[in-house]
Specification:
The chain is α+β, with helices and mostly antiparallel strands and 597 residues long. It has two domains: 172 residues, Penicillin-binding protein 2a (Domain 2) (Alpha-Beta Complex); 358 residues, Beta-lactamase. The protein contains 18 helices and 23 strands. Strands 2, 3, 4, 5, 10, 18 and 19 form a seven-stranded mixed beta sheet that branches. The chain has a five-stranded antiparallel beta sheet with strand order 12-11-23-22-21, sandwiched between helices.
Length: 597
């Protein structure tokens, strides 16, 4: 009897053990490995396809499409249960596309959701046709049409537009980065049923269409942008071939509406085909062989490159002198060609003797001696106070990040991508009176072209600091408004009208001296600047290479509609920039080409 009970208990133990094993395996399959087996089962029955959202388009103010999304064919592979069949598919696919079997396997092994096909490569239409003809031999093959970024105008506005990293589908520079949240859209999806051979069956069982990104509309006038770009390129080449400025390869132009802050043109030269952004080999291939490497840069010279501005700065010192009473409009200072001010040797261009000059005449002939004297009377702190008034100052370390505005408040490009002015006080151990004299006629300190455009706009409009902006409105893909941007006043300077009048008249007399500005139906206000470069690390005993050419001004003189800044790096004296300004004026006002040589 005891032996019988022993056998029964043994059978019970064995049965319990078998039951425990079955329960454990069931738990393993259902709970621990449940998701994995569900994915395998779903993958055998369904294929999930992501529908990528077309990126929002970017248009100019005159309706020209500057950034588009164009359809591109993409080859992808879904997972196969049969490894043997997958290897056959990989081997066959490698014969049609420019990828090795190892590269295809690497794409398949990348982290992704198992039910989504792995993108292998982008192909052309001819390859698509050949793949479709053989698709029955590759059941896991998926051919999708996906949007890809394209810049139809190629090199027009390339630097400000920025670029997109296609693999991550996000903006990485310029407008593309700053407005990525609006531009990128929302992806959709579709789910299709497949049979045991991994072949699609019928229509999609579920789907959600992609929502295209929002569209940006800029303030840029493409006709004016192209005219400024072509003119800057032509004049730089002229300086290299006809003058001694052999390093005159680079420059910038900003055209702005002084009554609103709308940026009408923003040019960096040399520029590049934005469809090949970051492809330096392509840029080298497309550009002249003699172009130096330093000239080829993705840096936007309008807001990322501060430089000394020479005599274009003299209106700051002039306004400071008149507003504070350090000098009157009628007081005359003797400009005898050479002088020593605060123990600093100063000479006027070419050691020209201008005699006794007042403020208007000093601006017209661009007397360093006159403005060095006024600056010495003001002192450096007062000069920097007026730099601040004109929105040209550099943010300090003590300021909160949101207060550290750059380029006069321009924020249509992220602040992290921008540069601000260079404050020379931070780079010297001991400030001396000679430094004050030098900054008075535009040396030592450095400013960007966009800061200069805001400054000359304030002279044109009477002291109103409008926030410079490039994005005018945003719409969704149907054209419905999302957001609209209007002129924004950041500050107003209460300059005395009589003092502004003196400065403007001096600028008008300066512009009238140029043969390039003859024959216009209206007067123009402007000022040239010849600036010695200080900090680039590219200094050369060749004085032409170390001299920048600037012109700032506005037109018409009596009723300003545009403010213009022209900067030509290593291009010689400032008067050489006026030719570009004349081309811009002719284009904007619809005039025939003019100007003397």
């Amino acid at each position: 009897m005891n032996r019988t009970h022993l056998r029964i208990n043994l059978l019970r133990i064995v049965a319990f053990f078998i039951l425990a094993v079955l329960v454990y395996n069931l738990f393993q399959l259902q709970i621990i490995e449940g998701k994995e087996w569900v994915n395998v089962a779903d993958n055998n029955r369904f294929r999930h396809l992501i529908e990528l959202a077309p990126r929002g388009r970017i248009f100019s103010a005159d309706g020209v499409e500057l950034a588009a999304s164009v359809p591109t064919y993409v080859v992808a592979l879904a997972d196969e249960v049969s490894k043997e069949r997958q290897e056959k598919t990989i081997a066959m696919l490698a014969q049609f596309i420019e990828k090795s079997e190892e590269e295809i396997r690497a794409k398949l092994s990348k982290n992704r959701r198992k039910f989504e096909p792995a993108v292998i490569d982008t192909v052309d239409f001819e390859t698509v046709i050949r793949l479709e003809e053989n698709k029955h031999l590759m059941p896991s093959l998926v051919i999708q049409v996906v949007p890809q970024r394209e810049y139809p105008e190629k090199d027009l506005l390339a630097h400000p537009l920025g670029g997109v990293k296609e693999s991550e589908r996000r903006g990485v520079a310029g407008l593309e980065k700053r407005w990525d949240e609006y531009l990128r859209g929302e992806d959709g999806f579709s789910v299709i049923q497949v049979n045991a051979d991994n072949r699609p069956i019928g229509d999609a069982v579920n789907s959600l269409p992609a929502v295209p990104g929002d569209n940006l509309y800029l303030t840029i006038d493409t006709k004016l942008q192209r005219a400024a770009q072509n003119s800057l390129r032509r004049v730089l080449e002229k300086q290299r071939t006809q003058a001694k400025a052999k390093d005159a390869w680079a420059g910038a132009v900003v055209v702005i509406d002084p009554n609103t802050g709308r940026i009408l043109a923003s040019v960096t030269e040399p520029t590049f085909d934005n469809n090949y952004r970051n492809n330096m080999d392509k840029w080298v291939e497309d550009s002249p062989a003699e172009m130096p490497a330093w000239a080829r840069t993705w840096m936007d010279r309008t807001y990322q490159y501060p430089a000394t501005v020479g005599s274009t700065f003299k209106m700051v010192v002039g306004m400071a002198g008149l507003e504070t009473g350090a000098i009157t409009a009628s007081e005359k200072i003797y400009a005898g060609g050479r002088a020593r001010i605060n123990n600093q040797p100063v000479n006027d261009f070419g050691f020209a003797v201008h005699g006794n000059v007042d403020m208007r005449r000093a601006l017209a002939v661009s007397s360093n001696i006159y403005f060095g004297t006024v600056g010495a009377r003001l002192g450096s702190e007062k000069i920097y106070e007026y730099i601040e008034k004109f929105g040209m100052s550099a943010p300090t370390k003590e300021q909160n990040p949101e207060d550290r505005i750059k380029n006069a408040g321009f924020d249509d490009i992220s602040q992290g991508e921008q540069a601000s002015s260079l404050d020379y006080r931070r780079y010297v151990k001991t400030w001396v009176g000679g430094n004050t004299v030098q900054i008075s006629y535009g040396q030592l300190n450095e400013f960007t072209a966009l800061q200069m455009a805001n400054y000359v706009s304030m002279l044109a409009n009477g002291g109103i600091h409008y926030k410079p902006y490039m994005v005018e409105k945003i719409t969704d893909y149907t054209g419905s408004p999302v957001e609209t941007f209007t002129p924004q006043v950041l500050d107003v300077q209460d300059f005395k009208p009589e003092n502004l009048k003196v400065i403007r008249e001096g600028m008008q007399q300066s512009a009238a001296r140029s043969s390039f500005l003859k024959g216009l139906p209206f007067a123009v206000a402007g000022k040239t600047g010849t600036a010695e470069h200080q900090y680039s690390g590219r200094k050369n005993p060749d004085t032409w290479r170390d001299t920048h050419s600037w012109w700032v001004g506005y037109a018409p003189y009596d009723n300003p509609e545009i403010a213009i800044v022209v900067f030509m790096e290593y291009a010689g004296v400032g008067s050489r920039s006026i030719e570009v300004a004349r081309d811009i004026i002719d284009c904007y006002f619809g005039l025939t080409e003019g100007g003397g040589e």
